[in-house]
Amino acid sequence: MKETILKMSDITKVFSTEEMETHALRGINLEIDKGDFVSICGPSGCGKSTLLSILGLLDMPSTGSYVIEGTEVSQLSLTAAAHIRNEKIGFIFQSFNLIDELSVYDNIALPLRYRQNPMSHSDIDQAVMSCLTKVDMAHRTKHRPNQLSGGQQQRIAIARALVGNPALLLVDEPTGNLDSKNGDAVMDMLKTLNLEGTTLCMVTHDPRYADMATRKLHLLDGKILAPQAQTAHPTLVDAF
Ligand SMILES: Nc1ncnc2c1ncn2[C@@H]1O[C@H](COP(=O)(O)OP(=O)(O)O)[C@@H](O)[C@H]1O
Ligand SMILES: [Mg+2]
């Protein structure tokens, strides 16, 4: 039976400065179910990162409704948004965003240490080691991120995103800073996580990686193209 994790209705986002208004999102309707693997493609500036930021409660929409697991989250205070984000959402960014002053182990444990309901040391240890094992990095707990290769750093970032057992994993250009071999390995890992039940929403420029998703969305000028327009629209896929 399908289980809806999130639903966006008519979400808009306007960035206003003194000189101009940028309409980054113009009425997004999106539903993601448990177990989905959604990819989002589109040209630079079409609103992909803005959409992921709002999906991940890093930013609030200008108008519209956004419901995560039954809770309306479009008008939350920053603190309330941070709590929901910490418990329900994992992020993977192009630039890894690990903290070089902390060990691999502490990078991954960090989100659990910020939990509203504190976890015991042994529960944290169990969660960290289980995620490190998943990404094949259990032998590198004491290293600093800058002592690892890019591919290894992204695997640590995946472990950090998974450690809180999030309902949703948001991924922005996960292979953008990797060579193709490490990029393929990271994508294989994400695909395996999805097959094991993790729900993913990923922005990518690479049509091969977009094809690994179970649902492909195309964004243009802040709108999701209708499915028929998506196949008719000349995408990178057609250029191959
Ligand atoms: N903080 C911001 N302030 C003003 N404009 C922004 C801001 N963030 C994004 N934009 C604008 O919103 C549009 C969408 O940006 P973005 O979501 O980053 O696109 P993409 O990730 O698809 O390249 C762009 O025109 C961008 O310049
Ligand atoms: Mg972007």
TrEMBL record:
Residues 6-239 form the ABC transporter domain. Keywords: ATP-binding, Nucleotide-binding, Transport. One of its GO terms (cellular component) is transmembrane transporter complex. It comes from the Bacteria. Belongs to the ABC transporter superfamily. Macrolide exporter (TC 3.A.1.122) family. This is Putative ABC transport system ATP-binding protein. One of its GO terms (molecular function) is transmembrane transporter activity. It holds the Pfam family ABC_tran.
